[in-house]
């Protein structure tokens, strides 16, 4: 188990030096700032990105997300779906051939949903979500109409069956991020992967190591399970199935998605020591990143202080679990 860092999109010395100084080994770029040429990311641009990370003694282990316009018709079943799938096949091949082993992506065209932020410990500011406030605002469909769950499952299955063989052929693993938050609708689009059973159904569409999970623990800890399993049991299940590519190791205030706020890594509802023990005991051998962090006094917009706190906490958790194994 290792420490990673993400939530930035360019190989700036500011971020990469920070990562190297805090003991990070693995880097994830979220929506990397790369040119889109004919609907694809180009191989030479991806190689340059990896080499920039290499120069700091770090490994570019994953890319998270492409610009939304590259996949929107794939997700919503739009008129350009097949062309976008062809373009994404090329992009996935290029990512793999550039020496980047993981591509993580979301299946929510409306991105992350939040309402007004909340003040938490010591006045730090954290993102929050209230379904009641959203309902009171009467938010209209954001993509022109309401979609059905059957439509969204059909679109996802079409994509998984098309892209997984390409990924397997190229030796790259694809991980899908859960909808944040895992509620019934995001502006008229039902997020199909809002339960543990939804993820089981996804992985059974094509049972391959290349069809896996970008495991956002904060979001997954808010999901329901028909078997009454806990987040710790689901961690064990998915790690043993070897479908957890890497982990967004963050915490939230509540196990219910309708009303919650993000927390410091050590003050949410999830027992993080118990969680990291579950990963270790199931044989997890990849990395953890902090993902979102609260904004603290005097911090930068990116959150250098908050990320340093989370990095130190994750490092200590890994060491504690390893020494007590």
Average per-residue pLDDT, rounded, comes to: 94
Cα-based radius of gyration, to the nearest Å: 19 Å
CATH superfamily: Divalent-metal-dependent TIM barrel enzymes
Overall strand count: 12
The parts where pLDDT drops under 50 for at least 5 residues are none
- State the major sheet: 8 strands, parallel, barrel
Shape designation: globular
CATH fold topology: TIM Barrel
- The span between the termini is 13 Å
Relative helix content = 25-40%
Helix-strand topology string: EHEHEHHEEEEHHEHEHHEEHEH
- Please report which band the strand proportion falls in: under 5%, 5-15%, 15-25%, 25-35%, 35-45% or over 45%: 15-25%
Summed up:
This protein is an alpha/beta fold and 325 residues long. 39% of the residues lie in helices and 16% in strands.
How would you sum up this structure, described in words?
- With 325 residues, this protein is an alpha/beta fold.
- It has a single domain (2-324), classed as TIM Barrel, CATH 3.20.20.150.
- The chain is 39% helix and 16% strand.
- The protein has eleven helices and twelve strands.
- The strands form three sheets. Strands 1-2-3-4-8-9-10-12 form an eight-stranded parallel β-barrel, surrounded by seven helices.
- Helix 1 (13-21) links the parallel strand 1 (2-8) and strand 2 (26-30).
- The chain is globular.
- The chain starts with a strand and ends with a helix.
């Amino acid at each position: 188990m290792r420490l990673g860092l993400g939530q930035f999109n360019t190989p700036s010395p500011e971020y990469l030096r920070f990562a190297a100084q805090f003991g990070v080994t693995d880097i994830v770029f979220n929506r990397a700032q790369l040119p889109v040429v004919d609907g694809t990311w180009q191989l030479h641009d991806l190689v340059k990105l990896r080499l920039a990370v290499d120069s700091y003694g770090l490994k570019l282990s994953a890319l998270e997300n492409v610009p939304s316009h590259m996949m929107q018709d794939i997700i919503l079943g739009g008129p350009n779906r097949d062309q976008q799938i062809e373009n994404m096949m090329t992009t996935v091949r290029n990512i793999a051939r550039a020496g980047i082993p993981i591509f993580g992506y979301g299946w929510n065209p409306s991105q992350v949903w939040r309402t007004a932020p909340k003040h938490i410990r010591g006045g730090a500011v954290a993102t929050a979500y209230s379904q009641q406030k959203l309902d009171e605002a009467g938010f209209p469909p954001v993509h022109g109409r309401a979609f059905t769950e059957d439509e969204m499952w059909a679109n996802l299955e079409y994509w998984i069956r098309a892209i997984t063989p390409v990924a397997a052929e190229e030796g790259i693993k694809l991980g899908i991020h859960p909808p944040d938050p895992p509620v019934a609708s995001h502006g008229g689009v039902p997020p199909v992967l809002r339960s543990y059973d939804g993820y089981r159904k996804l992985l059974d569409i094509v049972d391959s190591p290349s069809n896996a999970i970008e495991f956002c623990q904060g979001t997954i800890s808010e999901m329901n399970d028909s078997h009454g399993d806990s987040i710790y049991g689901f961690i064990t299940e998915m790690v043993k199935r070897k479908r957890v590519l890497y982990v967004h190791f963050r915490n939230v205030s509540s196990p219910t998605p309708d009303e919650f706020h993000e927390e410091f890594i050590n003050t949410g509802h999830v027992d993080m020591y118990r969680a990291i023990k579950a990963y270790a005991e199931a044989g997890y051998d990849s990395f953890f990143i902090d993902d979102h962090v609260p904004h603290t006094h005097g911090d930068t917009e990116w959150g250098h202080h908050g990320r340093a706190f989370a990095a130190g906490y994750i490092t200590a958790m890994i060491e504690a679990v390893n020494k007590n194994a």
